[in-house]
Fold GntR family transcriptional regulator.
Amino acid sequence: MTRYQHLADLLAARIEQGLYGEKEKLPSVRTLSQQHGVSISTVQQAYRLLESRRLIVPQPRSGYFVAPRQALPPVPAMTRPAQRPVEVTQWDQVLTMLDARHDKTITAFGGGSPDVEQPTLRPLWREMSRVIQHNPGEIFSYDSLPGRRELREQIARLMLDGGTIASADDIVVTSGCHAALSIALLAVCKPGDIVAVESPCYYGTMQMLRGFDIKAIEIPTDPQTGISVEALEMALEQWPIKGVILVANCNNPLGFVMPDARKRQVLSLAQRYDIAIFEDDIYGELANDYPRPRTLKSWDIDGRVLLCSSFTKTVAPGLRVGWVVPGRYRDRVLHMKYAASATNVPSTQLAVAAFVREGHYHRHLRKMRQIYQANIEIYSGWCRQYFPCGICLTRPQGGYMLWVELPEEVDMVCVATQLRRLKIQVAPGSLFSASGKYRNCLRINCALPPDEKHRAVMAQLGEAIYRAIEAPEESVVMANGAINGFRQ
Amino acid sequence: MTRYQHLADLLAARIEQGLYGEKEKLPSVRTLSQQHGVSISTVQQAYRLLESRRLIVPQPRSGYFVAPRQALPPVPAMTRPAQRPVEVTQWDQVLTMLDARHDKTITAFGGGSPDVEQPTLRPLWREMSRVIQHNPGEIFSYDSLPGRRELREQIARLMLDGGTIASADDIVVTSGCHAALSIALLAVCKPGDIVAVESPCYYGTMQMLRGFDIKAIEIPTDPQTGISVEALEMALEQWPIKGVILVANCNNPLGFVMPDARKRQVLSLAQRYDIAIFEDDIYGELANDYPRPRTLKSWDIDGRVLLCSSFTKTVAPGLRVGWVVPGRYRDRVLHMKYAASATNVPSTQLAVAAFVREGHYHRHLRKMRQIYQANIEIYSGWCRQYFPCGICLTRPQGGYMLWVELPEEVDMVCVATQLRRLKIQVAPGSLFSASGKYRNCLRINCALPPDEKHRAVMAQLGEAIYRAIEAPEESVVMANGAINGFRQ
């Protein structure tokens, strides 16, 4: 970091902490130069940087003043996707993003990884070692088809918190929530079928639909209350829809928790039109509120909800331990699990079962909920600070994703291409739409610790967005160049 | 074990070892009674048991004589399945068998588990502990989509032994060979497509086809040389077949290694008719001959062979580490991997990569090849000893499966149902046919150590088969009763 950036960050922190109040005059260039032992031009550069960040405003002949405090940007409006079944595109973009994931020099704002560096995760490490020492025979052998019973018993207990009443026998363990959802889809749908999704919708889910030749119909979704029940009903009337995929609790990417009344409305719609509900509850345990919000499954009286979840976001992705509570589809789900992958790794199942049983899971979860909530506050502040005026920002009620809507003219696909050269990976909104909508949007993974490094990356991201607004053509040209370069 | 059974086994062992020669007279009942300090009736019972095992024959007024030594039963003839595309059935039977797998009181002759109790596997246990201690960050994080590079590099080296030339980038790691094959099928086929299979064919593969709504056409297969090239060509001429699934090396369940010339004939047929080859090489490393037999992939010049394999049979099923070398289908395979399950568990990948790198894999494999070869000898002997005359028996050239063809009138599905009550699980031949053929056949897993316990189980199995021959109606009634009991 250069000297002037360092100074600018210092001043920005003082403004944020209120040491310099709103509309207060800042020290003169000369005073600062003497106080910090830097040159006049360094101070001038720092002030210009703060000005570009909308933190200070110059007044001719009297110096710089703290800018009037901006209110939190508004929440994005209800989305308006094309409401007809479409084939999912965007695979190339997803693949590029996945490819970047394992370059350790890259800052991955676009991925979905949780924070796995917290000390409350250490007992898991001990449980894994213990499992290997005490169960060599079992960890080397085939698992049973539904998964380890001791794990399913722990999961059944955990799910009570969300109102889901299921016995160990009602649960089928899978390789993460991703496999849970894919098996659920394979069990219910055929190629050519139509499935309704929230819009925006997690790109992994979307690519699953593409893989299995299922068409997606994107339903307008409110960033605070979830899928539009009215729009869903209209779609159900118009199209032969097989099911709807919902992330009702701590939605990815929008962060909402659907109000209970709306959850029940969707469920009764599903009953009326006889469709399945694929409930993706992977972030449900990370809700800000305690006790955690209820699942749709908790009101499911006729087994049409296939509840999918995992320990990926709450504990660690590398465990690959997820599950599905398939309701009336249990036989088909077991068969599709057998067809797709047969059995899972026993060692990680045994380790996470012990982690839950010994109470480590709840301690860890409590900690992570606090951390992610605080992170989102900080990242929201940075968005306000570094991004242009006119953005909209979600107010996540859990999880660790932030969704930013930028001015219409910003093409985040181009910006993402430029940022790759700076070793920054972001997820443009278009990944979250079957047909590439939301190019002016962006999902940010706030699980990345909000340290100085990530603040600097957010600032770089903001600069790239400013550039895209100021010279949109140039950024397109640069992006194309970069794409060509990338493909060579 | 009762006293008379113990005595019978002792005498049987002496006969097998040649201490009592062929047609030699055995000691009188009185002599044995004095020698072993048992009652006259115990000796009489022991002799009657040996007689029922066809090891000795009584001669009126002169006592018991060692029975003339039987020649090894003939190899089964070329199979003759119905050569038209059919929908796969038999799922209920497979599920029943899988359900039984995790009851530790059951002897699982029907499953496919390797022997994971050998001391040459201990280093794997150490490598797993080491991985967990040294890489906590990595084992908790997401894997990359194609799988851990250090593992793919080791796999690339291993595959050279079978003539397969592939770089780490050509390999996609999967959750076992099962997932490798299912992803390969999803990448190439659509529902309604037709795929050719050897007949008999592993039931897991068959159920995959059922799960994905792919029709199977079963091709006549010779138990010594593999799929009939002529019959395959006829089928290709008659039906729009998308691909053929082959277990060319150490076939499951028949045990053959396809001669190289035939492998090349099938490959050139595939080129001529432009179909894909799904090569399941999971047992390939367990061939009796060294160096191991070549893969079809090793002659594949246009990338139409999707080679699938894993460490499940050679090392341990609980690792869930397999791979596919997808050739020209790489992009589709990566997409289907993402759609079906996304990424795999990193810890077991890292452990097995170290196990291979440090040379433990080759040591273990050498040992296991010897063990399985010896086991098959012993189990073949027991088949001869305990099963009725007129059986046919395969001569496996690797792997650990033995295929027994029993007299036409034996219904192994019924026998299997009876045996379940005796806590013995067997795999009736019908599991290996799309339409339930081979009801008079049986696959035996010779990886189970040929100890006294398993000898006794083989004897029980033989008795059940004898009963089925002597009173076929009764066994059907019993089986139905058992099924009803089971379902309650």
In short: Residues 479-488 of chain B have pLDDT under 50 and may be disordered. Chain B has three domains: 3-66, 90-116+363-484, 119-361.
